[in-house]
Amino acid sequence: MYTREEMSDIRRFLHAQPELGFEEYKTQRFLLAKISEMPADHLKVETWRTGILVFVAGDAATQTIGYRTDMDGLPIKEETGLSFASQYDGKMHACGHDLHMTIALGILSYYAENQPKDNLLFVFQPAEEGPGGAEPMLEADLFQQWRPDWMFALHIAPNEPVGTVTTRQGLLFANTAEFMVHLGGRGGHAAYPHLANDMVVAASHFVTQIQSVVARRIDPLDSAVITIGKIESGTKENIIAERADTEGTIRTLSAEAMNLVQEHVRKIGAGIAESFDCTVEVEWGSQYKQVWNSDKVSSFMSFSEASHDVTFKQADMAMTGEDFGFFLEKIPGFMFWLGVDSPAYGLHDPGLNPDEGAIPVAVHHIINYLNDEMGG
Ligand SMILES: CC(=O)N[C@@H](CCC[C@H](N)C(=O)O)C(=O)O
Question: Where is the active site (predicted)?
Fold first, then answer.
């Protein structure tokens, strides 16, 4: 089994070479190389696109338990100043997937040396940040052949100290939908606005108006978020822009609220086209299912509460999204947060700097929990 230092080396190597969704080629090669160094007697290893599945055969199996990690980085320029910072300009592991992969490898290295009683399936899943690897992976014959009876995963929590795990039964993460809105009008000279059709102004109205959907269309006792993370428009201060392209994401606690927000984004887009006499195209990107923890989470919560190695806290619902929700829609299981103590720089922040002390904490806690679940 890996030492703390070996796991730190693995994490730093992965951190230095983040790759975007379905481009995790070097990541996959590195993980396969690490797995190939482990005793292989009871392991079966297969690749699926840029992901990997490792089936660990139990010696008296009555069930298969799945453990999933995501693999991709984000299009963010790293600003941590760390010695092992990203070597790829404009890409960063800013959501902790480098830690998630290291923890999965750490647990796997233990079970490669210590055959478990039950079967285990280690799921190295690409493209969590987008376009979404969970849904097609779940449908793949390879996954179905080893389909686990239940499965779980973790996500780093920058706002919690190392040694803390938090989760809850029921809804943990929100429903999400990415959208792109393209507005097209007529460009022209800045001095003659009446002869043009300014898409900077149209896009500004669109962005402002959709905020009223959350304030005025959603039941205040329900919840929704609309964030526009990107706007591209124009070329120069004295040229009226003929195009504006916006990208955003919707988060809701309920499927009903998601349908309602999507309907109003479409309607507001059509209204902008009408009032600004321009064209509008609303495009939908990946849409993730909520992360719903089944009652399988209760054994993890009571095990963690009783554990001397971690402090357990009840989690609140979060508006983050996770395509692990697709697995949990079909297979019972749960997700939990792992404290990594980076309160000043959260998820998707160029300064995110998780404490690596969380890696051995997670590896040992999960091994202890799995052994307990397998009756060991
Ligand atoms: C945990 C986390 O940060 N997850 C991402 C998931 C991406 C969802 C999707 N690409 C979207 O933006 O709708 C998150 O942004 O919550």
Answer: 70, 129 (proton acceptor)
